[in-house]
Automatic annotation (TrEMBL):
InterPro entries assigned: Complex1_LYR_dom (IPR008011), Complex1_LYR_LYRM9 (IPR045291)
A Pfam match: Complex1_LYR
Designated name of the protein: LYR motif-containing protein At3g19508
Stated family: Belongs to the complex I LYR family. LYRM9 subfamily.
Limits of the Complex 1 LYR protein domain: 3-41
Signal peptide: none
Amino acid sequence: MEKALRAYAEVLRLVRRLPKESRGYYAKYARENFVNYRDVDPFDSTTLHDLFHRTYNHSIWLLHKYSIDDSAADKLKRICCG
């Protein structure tokens, strides 16, 4: 649970780097996705691994969409993939 909260907080930090007009949409999208998966079994390491990698990959895609350098997601990478 702690890892998920750290990942969520970092995703919200990345959302703040987006253009002002798109921040609300992506913050809500991130929240909905984290809420949808809150009931995942915390002992199912395969599912958790996949979800954290997907979190990171979607964040990288979003940064590329808005031409933001990947290095902004280094902390998220350490949380999700490290």
